[in-house]
Fold:
Amino acid sequence: MDWGAGLHVFLSFSGIAALLIGTLVGLFMGVLPGLGGVFALTVFLPLTFNLPAAPSVIFLVALHTAGVFGGAIIAILINTPGTPGNIATTFDGYPLAQKGRAMEAIVATGVAGAIAGMISVVVVILLAPAVASFGLQINPADYFMLAVLGLSLVAAAAHGNTLAGIILGGIGFLLSMVGRDPITGASRYDWNITFLSDNGINFTVMVIGLFAISNAFIMLMEARSPQSERSIPSVPPLSTGIRAGIVEVFRHPFSVMRSTVLGIILGAIPGIGISISNMVAYVVETRFNKKGGFGQGNIAGPIVAEAADNATMPAELIPTFLLGIPGGAASALLLVAITIHGLEPGLSFFHGNPDSAAIFIAMFFTQIVMAVLGVLLSRFLAQAVRIPKAVLAPIVIVLSCVGAYAVASNVYDVVLALLFGVVGYLLIRLKYPIAPLVLGDILGELAESNYRRAVVIGQANHASAFLHPFPILLAVISILAFLLPIVSQLLNLRGKPLAGRFSKSQS
Amino acid sequence: VDVEQYDYKMTSTKLAFDLLLFLVVLAFVVASYQYEQGAGTFARVVGYPVLVLILPMLIFDCIKLRAVGRRGENGGVRRFRVEFPLIPLLVAALYAGLMVVFGYQLTTILFLTLVPAMITKKWRKLPVFLVISLAVTYLFVFLFRLGSGVALPSGALWGGW
Structure:
């Protein structure tokens, strides 16, 4: 990788500006509960289409990373996680805030997160060539099964709803077929709608609807309730916790390292993401930490949760940037961002491309900028929770629709995004996972084209195309990943009265 | 709040939604037969297993609906009611309709002024919402031109400023 040229691109005005603006916007979006990293990426991705590659991706990476830290700040201050990755942060972060140690907890999570994030970026850079070389050796049948495995893991990660996850993933596969055939170019599954036959269902438009507009609809419904407005949390001055926060991180070196390693390993597995890694890191810490007092304000809790989050985010990019197989919604959006700007996933991403080097350098420095700005601005950011949902939700809808329009300058994309917004609203209300539908859509084309190539290579014989050790191994893992959560769910149900099961599942 | 009625309504909604998913997948599978071998096969490879997986979900939904319906004081099966996403659909239709007629700028100003007032029923705050809407509209115009570079949509009746 050409680090010298990459550093030059990163240190340009546009590179630094993208990093700073992305971090500020991300922190602001992160503190608004219900919005956060993926939402911010969804809304701002289309607005970067006209910008050069490196500043665009740097902006988006900073936006996502800072969004999660913004979520941690609000998790500590008002006991409401800004993103799903901040749930474990509330367990001890809020009790610390109640004891007047909010700033200490914010500083500690910022510093621990930055250290873990930087280590994770270095590990990704070191591992990249080996993974990319592996990517060159796999054939279409392997690629198809990898796409299926990725989808299975994402569906399996849908807590208690694996079956719905796999069904929605399959529907995502089907929706990806609407429009032009990737091999012959003929239009299909368009039901004689000209817009669909020409454009298909654009992934970005779909994600804008499912993640951004649906959340805006949820906010609108909540805004009708008289108790929807929040009071401003009190944030102690910076001087009260900055030194103590830093000292606490260095008092827990093994905790930080343990959660960093866990975060990297879990991040590299598709479907896991920050929503699981922060919980796993917290649970592991409660086993190893002998001091105890978890849930009552043990500062190791938020430290490990945020360290795991920040280690997971760069690691998620290993399968995304190297194999073209995203592990979650955020990495899928970053994959779209790099391909729109002409950067191809795979080995070429790491060779002789200053933009790729600049992106990794920015990823490293984002961790520091995020921690510094987040800590300095936390008192100001806390005011953002005052914005009424009735005002915020229409703004989100408008910004999302502008983003959908920017994809192809087509008003039909706006209508499609609004329709997906209604679908997303229903999915959220019914507690169905949205990520498998999105992943299915983005993996669909990869899966279909490789499936068809494998069948052609196997001379239309499915057995000779797919009956090889590696695809069989991947198929077995996919089936196990899908079946194990269902079996464990069924085992948990045993012994519970019928009515009790139903009331619990719908509560 | 009648928790049991809510439970029943959400279970009915889930059943209706799962049925909709089944029909969507079925439509893809049926449509796949009109395309040549390559373009249609993959939809069937994915579609049939998904249809098979939706069936147990539908059966489970029906059993659950029956169980939830029989629970409660009266013990009788309740009316089948689904939670129709009326407000999201109305808001979506309002925005799309305004956009087609008035284009981006006027639509955004109208939408950001009227929707908060309608939702909160605080009509006296209309001037505040108007100021916010003007600021947000032109901030978005600036961001859009900076980042995307294409022209914003103009409406059938209004070309924009």
Remarks:
- Confidence is low (pLDDT under 50) at residues 497-507 of chain A.
- Chain A touches chain B through 64 residues (CB under 8 Å).
- The beta strands of chain A are 179-180, 187-188.
- The two ends of chain A are 52 Å apart (CA to CA).
